[in-house]
Amino acid sequence: MRFFSGFFLAFLLSSASFASVTIQCDNKNYAGKKLDFYCFTDPISSESQFVFSLETDQTGKSVKTIELQSTQFVFCDFGIYRGMLLLEPDQKIILKLPPVREKSFADQKNPYFEPVSFWFETENKQQLNNYLANFTNRLNQLTEKYFDQLYFRQSKQAYDSLVFFIEKEFGSIKSESFELHEKLSLKMVEAEAFRQKPEDYSSLFSAIKQEYWLYPAFTALFDKTFSGQLSFEAKSVKGDEVRKAANQANVSFLIQYTKTRYKLNEEMAQLALLKMLHDGFYSGDFSKKSIVQMVKSEIFSKNKNNIIRESALRISEKITFLQPGSPAPAICLNNLNGTKSCTSENNGKYKYIIFADTEMIVCREHLKYLSAIQEKFAKNLEIYVVLRKTDPVQMKKFFTETEVPGAKLVDENGEFINQYKIKSFPQCFLFDQNHKVKITSVKAPLDGFEQQFATVLRNDLIEKQRRQG
Length: 469
Prior knowledge:
The chain is α/β, with parallel strands linked by helices and 469 residues long. 43% of the residues lie in helices and 19% in strands.
């Protein structure tokens, strides 16, 4: 059970009995591949954690047995896909893997790439995942068939026809997990087609058991319902009280407001408010300090509900990560010559960190310009280039032919690219002499870093003189 850690372990230990589930695959086209499965830590932050791996042998076979107490949702990103799976206790699950489709070069470099999501089918046609796969395919077919009537004409008759066919084909499936998935999926179609307001249907969330709060049908509808709602409420006709409460960190008022406004019980109101605070932090409409204070409040951090506690913790970590004044994680990697170097080495200079991919033309042009920055700020600035691992020969060739100052560190396993949540290249950071984040939204070399850093130096000099005076 070592794969269960933190929240996931606490969640599983909340009941008494465990049961085994065995996951298998047999596909020669996947020979020697490794499929890593993850679960979401909470319904809001999109943070995930490792659960288990399927490592296929040279014939494409793999077997893994794990223990769990109730049906659990996991997913696996591989190639262009995101495969979704509900693990059921006391089951032997033989996965049917799709044709191998690796990401193209363009997909690998595209920060907005979205994997093709699907439910894994299994050899046993009576298993839950097959029901989900068939249901999803059929729902997609029906929404496409009635698309104009639903989304343009808002036809109640078309929606009733869609529900009729779904019930006719899937109404006999007696599975609480499946029935909830069906109910929430249909509600999503209804809410979108008829432009329903969140408060028109939000009360349904209070009836959903906690064990389903991490299911994709729940998280999808939950996100649609409460996304951006704090800003929306604050800008409404009677939004002054909401705005005031948010900026004064009056979390008790906001919980009661959410509870009443959306017809929710106490726990669901708290979860919904966490979602609203998460979005409100990034909206720029409220005091970030107040939102951080509310997310860290004991109402959430010491909540009896473990998912609410975990959600608050993950959101807190997310919204405070790499904020100005916070300690930045040290980056320690080998350079192109195999010698380890760390960004945390204290030499009294600012640190300019550039995450780059030398296969991208735009990155190469930014890196070439670093020599001008180094020449201008050599006394105050140290440069670190953190490189996505690409062809080592081509990488060395580029740096041999181009004068690029600073340490060139190769992130072999993407450890720091993941830790720093790098979505696209280049992406830059500026740390102070104590390896703390200096500012956010640091510009790339060709996008105006010189002017930005000159302003930082000038402001720091003025502040230093003010303190001495």
